[in-house]
């Protein structure tokens, strides 16, 4: 019989609906049951694309004997970390404090009925191995500890709550401490110190893309060495196995320092920021490799990640699993003879040399995972593309990894922003239409009476949205407005910003809590400024609010952004590592962007906008406003024109309108160098 997870929206929870474990979703009912029965809670947090989550499920959660021990001793709660990032943040932090080790997924935490963690870990094997205790033995020992050592648990709980409270930023530098560029220089130095000059990226294996750090380096217009660190990393990633050489899109991370073998899960949240980064790299260098990555990844997003179902049309799905047919990477890897049989002799000759098939197998000693190991001569590009098409077609006939088809507001926002930025850079209306369709889905299904919802599956939207949902969506909307501004976009942006200020801002100290003020009471309420796999909501919010203040003229948004920066200033000034999103906001506080307003007939405005998109101008904020758009705030309300006029404004000063494209280009390039 299915347990209580069968009706959940999360595909991850549904994967466990037929377990013999009496799983429950996180709810007041489950917590009350633990209180009533005086049982500890076994909290298991994971996500659909997680390989080790599947391993632990197959070993333990599908085993009736293990399930019997769990059901006898615990109230068992299963959580999708993508739907409940609030719970994941809290219990990952608790795990790190209790064990002095970094966390991960699956996260396995043992809680008191009040939700306080007293023991935990990540993956536990069914029987002892890897230096880890066996899960069945552990279940018995932890249950015994809960029964016999309540006083020690209570003492530990008090210390843990105090430690978690100490993680909240408190400000403290005061109004006299002026902002300056020293944190930017310090972060640049730290990144250079950890940069892998041979393989790109930072540190050693495993290697993650870290888009926020790469974007920070790529913005250093007067620092060729910093830009080259970002560009070299982007080149090595594009050539490596972390990038899907056949179908486009990036996997979550590389298990080695060379970007060769990935952990094969593909996440929406990585690919959105990477799309924007590769578009910027192309705008800066015009290298064909960067253009190919953008084109292939955008095609993958529209082909495989965007819903065409009636109930959620336009929304972007969350992820692809690492496993297919219960084997990690099976969908992606090849036997050499299999490839040879699919290609002509000339195609195979080029493919083998370029993708490493003429060398030893690089995946588990028996298979080849494709990565670009040799440059492709121009004369052979067509042969390699023909080989790519044939292998992609053959791979498409395999059993694919499972796709998590829930639609998350925050991750959709990251992809909307990436697609819109790429569309603006390459003048691609199809990519812009994809981004617009996703935004239309969010407004249609997730925006309810001034309130944003976090997730939707099969037309069922629920859960109050978090800080990241609002902040990322606001940032995405501002990017989309630069690609194509609709008459109601600015109004929606202000509505999102007003909701942020009303429901998330800490009015006393500044900054934004991760959960809204009316959220259920949990053991901790995070307010973080650090980037993780996704950018920090506080940093993105501060950056977006500053830009919105520039467009709308509403000073409240700029003041809120400044209070956020002041709150985190004691954190990012001495220790800027992990604070790239906040430093992006700081950078624009120190040097506000140049605002360019185009006004005139729709067709001509679009032509100028397309030309602007191909310039590498990170400090420029451009809005193309056809004459048909009216009701604009003062900063944007420029006179209607029979031909395109451009107003270039910095701070409160605007140059005389420019009606000549070459002159506008000259002015902007000169401004960017100042």
Task: Give the topology, please.
Blueprint: H1 11-15, E1 23-25, H2 28-37, E2 41-46, H3 51-61, H4 64-73, E3 75-80, H5 85-99, E4 107-111, E5 117-121, H6 135-148, H7 150-165, H8 182-194, H9 211-218, H10 224-239, E6 253-254, E7 262-263, E8 266-267, H11 268-285, H12 288-305, E9 319-320, E10 323-324, E11 327-328, H13 336-342, H14 345-355, H15 381-395, E12 403-404, E13 407-408, H16 409-426, H17 429-446, E14 447-448, E15 451-457, E16 460-464, H18 467-483, H19 489-503, H20 537-552, H21 555-572, H22 580-590, E17 594-600, H23 602-613, E18 620-626, E19 645-650, E20 653-654, H24 661-673
Description of the molecule:
By secondary structure, the protein is an alpha+beta fold. Among the domains are: 11-165, Glutaredoxin; 332-397, no CATH class; 594-673, no CATH class. The protein contains 24 helices and 20 strands. Helix 11 (268-285) packs antiparallel against helix 12, helix 18 packs across helix 20 and helix 19 (489-503) crosses helix 20 (537-552). It is globular.
CATH superfamily of the domain at 11-165: Glutaredoxin
Q: Helix count?
A: 24
Amount of beta strand = 5-15%
The helix content, as a percent range, equals 40-55%
Q: Say what the CATH topology of the domain at 11-165 is.
A: Glutaredoxin
How many strand segments?
Answer: 20
pLDDT < 50 stretches? none
CATH class of the domain at 11-165: Alpha Beta
Shape estimate:
globular
**Do you know the CATH architecture of the domain at 11-165?**
3-Layer(aba) Sandwich
Order of strands in the sheet with most strands: 1-3-2-4-5
Give the overall average pLDDT: 95
Spatial gap, N to C terminus: 68 Å
Task: Let me know the largest β-sheet.
Answer: 5 strands, mixed
Structural class: alpha+beta
Rg over CA atoms: 26 Å
């Amino acid at each position: 019989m299915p347990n209580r997870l069968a009706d959940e929206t999360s595909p991850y929870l549904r994967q466990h609906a037929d377990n013999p474990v009496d799983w429950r979703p996180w709810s007041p009912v489950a917590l009350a049951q633990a209180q009533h029965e005086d049982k500890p809670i076994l909290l298991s947090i994971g996500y659909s694309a997680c390989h080790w989550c599947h391993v632990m499920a197959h070993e333990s959660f599908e085993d009736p004997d293990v399930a019997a021990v769990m059901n006898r001793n615990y109230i068992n709660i299963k959580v999708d970390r993508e739907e409940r990032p609030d719970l994941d943040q809290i219990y990952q932090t608790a795990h790190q404090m209790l064990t002095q080790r970094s966390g991960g997924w699956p996260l396995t935490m043992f809680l008191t009925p009040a939700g306080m963690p007293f023991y935990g870990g990540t993956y536990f094997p069914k029987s002892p191995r890897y230096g880890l205790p066996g899960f069945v033995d552990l279940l018995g020992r932890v249950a015994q500890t809960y029964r016999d050592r309540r006083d020690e648990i209570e003492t530990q709980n008090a210390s843990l709550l105090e430690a978690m409270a100490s993680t909240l930023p408190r400000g403290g530098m005061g109004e006299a401490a002026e902002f300056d560029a020293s944190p930017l220089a310090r972060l640049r130095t730290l990144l250079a110190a950890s940069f892998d000059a041979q393989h790109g990226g930072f540190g050693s294996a495993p290697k993650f893309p870290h888009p926020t750090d790469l974007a920070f380096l790529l913005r250093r217009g007067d620092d060729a060495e910093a830009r080259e660190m970002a560009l070299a990393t982007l080149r090595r990633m594009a050539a490596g196995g972390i990038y899907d050489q056949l179908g486009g899109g990036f996997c979550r991370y590389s298990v080695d320092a060379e970007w060769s073998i990935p952990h094969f899960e593909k996440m929406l949240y990585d690919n959105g920021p990477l799309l924007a980064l590769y578009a910027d790299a192309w705008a800066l260098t015009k290298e064909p490799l960067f253009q190919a990555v953008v084109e292939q990844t955008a095609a993958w997003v529209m082909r495989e990640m965007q819903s065409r179902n009636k109930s959620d049309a336009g929304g972007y799905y969350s992820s692809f699993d690492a496993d297919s047919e219960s084997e990690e990477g099976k969908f992606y890897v090849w036997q050499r003879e299999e490839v040879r049989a699919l290609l002509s002799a000339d195609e195979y000759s080029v493919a083998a040399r370029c993708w490493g098939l003429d060398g030893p197998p690089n995946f588990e000693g028996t298979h080849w995972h494709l990565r670009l190991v040799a440059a492709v001569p121009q004369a052979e590009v067509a042969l390699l593309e023909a080989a790519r098409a044939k292998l992609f077609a053959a791979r498409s006939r395999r059993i694919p990894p499972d796709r998590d088809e829930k639609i998350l507001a925050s991750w959709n926002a990251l992809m909307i922003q990436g697609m819109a930025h790429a569309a603006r850079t390459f003048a691609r209306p199809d990519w812009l239409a994809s981004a617009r369709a996703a935004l239309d889905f969010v407004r249609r299904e997730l925006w309810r009476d001034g309130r944003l919802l976090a997730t939707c599956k099969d037309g069922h939207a629920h859960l109050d949205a978090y800080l990241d949902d609002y902040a990322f969506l606001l940032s995405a909307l501002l990017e989309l407005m630069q690609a194509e501004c609709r008459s109601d976009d600015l109004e929606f942006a202000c509505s999102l910003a007003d909701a942020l200020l009303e429901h998330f801002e800490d009015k006393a100290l500044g900054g934004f809590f991760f959960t809204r003020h009316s959220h259920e009471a949990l053991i901790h309420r995070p307010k973080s400024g650090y980037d993780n796999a996704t950018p920090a909501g506080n940093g993105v919010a501060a950056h977006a609010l500053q830009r919105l203040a520039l467009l709308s003229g509403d000073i409240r948004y700029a003041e809120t952004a400044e209070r956020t920066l002041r709150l985190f200033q004691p954190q990012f000034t001495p220790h800027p590592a992990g604070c790239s999103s906040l430093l992006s906001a700081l950078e624009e506080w120190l040097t506000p962007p140049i605002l360019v307003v185009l006004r005139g007939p729709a067709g001509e405005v679009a032509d100028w906008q397309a030309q602007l998109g191909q310039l590498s101008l990170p400090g420029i904020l451009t809005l193309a406003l056809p004459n048909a758009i009216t009701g604009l705030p003062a900063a944007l309300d420029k006179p209607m024109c029979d031909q395109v006029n451009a107003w270039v404004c910095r701070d409160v000063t605007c140059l005389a309108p420019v009606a000549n494209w070459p002159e506008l280009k000259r002015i902007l390039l000169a401004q960017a160098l100042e």
